[in-house]
Structure formats: structure tokens, C-alpha cells
Amino acid sequence: MIAGALTHIGPPGTLNNKIAVSADGRLYVAEANNRILVFAPGASGNVPPSQIIEDSTIGSTQVDAGGIGVRSCQCNRQP
Fold first, then answer.
1. Is 29 exposed, middle or buried (0-12, 13-18, 19+ CB in 10 A)?
2. Predicted TM-score (pTM) of this structure
3. How many CA atoms are closer than 13 Å to the CA of 73, on its beta-carbon side?
4. Euclidean distance between CA atoms 12 and 63, whole angstroms
5. Other Cβ atoms closer than 10 A to 31
6. How crowded is residue 39: how many other Cβ atoms within 10 Å of its Cβ?
7. Going by C-beta distance under 8 Å and a sequence separation of 6 or more, which residues neighbour residue 49?
8. 34: buried, middle or exposed (CB in 10 Å: 19+, 13-18, 0-12)?
9. Where are the alpha helices (DSSP H) in the chain?
10. Between residues 18 and 57, which one has the greater pLDDT?
11. What digits encode the pLDDT tens for the residues 13-30?
12. 8 A C-beta contact, residue 26 and residue 38
């Protein structure tokens, strides 16, 4: 579980986050404020993201309206 003030993730129920996990275990959290928080493989607890990817498009107001693209898939999940 990743939660707490250091994560920069908003409070439960206030955001419509999309998440993804890369092949190397990084967790990506796309937020509605034009940024993606990246957490290191194995991260847990109240930890800061290892990287924050922010949209620098002037005047953008949503992840899908700015310069950050988010693609979802019907991926096969393994237990």
C-alpha cells in the first residue's frame, strides 16, 4: 500500500486516478491535475514518488486535454 502526505496522492474519493504498472515494477498514478506520479518497484507506505511527470502545456486542465497521454488496455493480470 502507498498512502500518506509524502506520496502527493490526493485524499481518497477526491480524484479519479488511473494506475499502471510497468514490466519492471514501477507504479504510475495519473492524476487529473496533469501529472503522473511514478513510484519505485517495491515502494510502500508514506513514500515520495521517485519521479513526477508534469504536463507543461499552457492552459491544459485535464490529463486527456494536455500533453500527457494515458492509454488503458485489457491486460491479463497474474496473481
1. buried
2. 0.66
3. 6
4. 19
5. 19
6. 22
7. 7, 8, 29, 37, 38, 39
8. buried
9. none
10. 18
11. 655 668 889 999 999 988
12. yes
